């Protein structure tokens, strides 16, 4: 078994929905054990044992929110001993606008993972179209991007984005298994 932890923050529940679909995608891969870990409830021991960590946060003011940044800063204790060296990493962000500067938040997550010496995973998912039922409609390959309207987390992000999150989770799970077997 490989273990993957999804570390996330969600102010209003939309990114949490995305995290749950990433988790579902991870669990769809035989041999993958996955868990969700909100930044308010970080367990450093579990993260130390994980094969891969997926970082997820909404985009607020063109960057990750303060709560997630606090987790990043707190992880400097791990950084001192390179405790996450060679673990796999990937990231996702959700925001209100179609662009909304999501790329900046993803690049923050990528830079953070690289500071820890982690191996950043891309997201090679071909867009199926531009509509709300299409997958990877936002065309992101650095990580997963989803978009939510000004509505409740039960209603938005749309179905296509949720399926994209499942593709993303499955993709991470498959790569974690390959990394474990030395095939990547
Ligand atoms: C403080 C704040 C800043 C935001 N900044 C952005 C932004 O820069 N770009 C954007 O597209 N949406 C922005 N939004 C909208 C959120 O990204 C959007 O509502 C998202 O669904 C929130 O995710 P959450 O429910 O997981 O907190 C912002 C929302 C808040 C509350």
List keywords for this structure.
184 residues, alpha/beta, Rossmann fold, 6-stranded parallel sheet, 6 helices, 6 strands, binds flavin mononucleotide
- CATH homology group: Flavodoxin domain
**Distinct small molecules bound, one entry per kind:** flavin mononucleotide
The main pleated sheet reads as: 6 strands, parallel
- CATH topology, which one? Rossmann fold
Terminal CA distance reads 17 Å
**Number of E strands:** 6
- Overall form: globular
**Global Rg:** 15 Å
Assign a percent range to the helix content: 25-40%
* Poorly predicted sequence stretches spanning 5 or more consecutive residues: none
CATH class (first level) name: Alpha Beta
Average pLDDT, to the nearest integer?
Answer: 97
Under the CATH scheme, the architecture is: 3-Layer(aba) Sandwich
* Number of separate helices: 6
Order of helices and strands: EHEHEHHEHEEH
Structural class: alpha/beta
Strand content: 15-25%
Number of domains: 1
């Amino acid at each position: 078994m490989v273990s993957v932890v999804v570390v996330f923050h969600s102010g209003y529940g939309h990114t949490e929905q995305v995290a749950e679909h990433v988790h579902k995608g991870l669990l769809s891969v035989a041999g993958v054990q996955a868990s969700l870990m909100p930044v308010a409830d970080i367990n450093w021991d579990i993260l130390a044992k994980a094969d891969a960590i997926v970082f997820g946060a909404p985009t607020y003011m063109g960057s990750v929110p303060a709560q997630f940044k606090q987790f990043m800063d707190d992880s400097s204790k791990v950084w001192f001993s390179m405790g996450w060296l060679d673990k796999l990493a990937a990231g996702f962000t959700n925001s209100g606008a179609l662009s909304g500067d999501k790329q900046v938040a993803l690049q923050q997550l990528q830079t953070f993972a690289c500071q820890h010496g982690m191996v950043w995973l891309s997201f090679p998912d071909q867009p199926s179209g531009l509509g709300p039922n299409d997958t990877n409609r936002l065309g992101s390959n650095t990580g997963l991007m989803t978009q939510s309207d000004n509505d409740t987390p039960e209603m938005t992000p749309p179905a296509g984005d949720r399926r994209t999150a499942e593709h993303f989770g499955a993709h991470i799970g498959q790569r974690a298994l390959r990394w474990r077997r030395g095939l990547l």
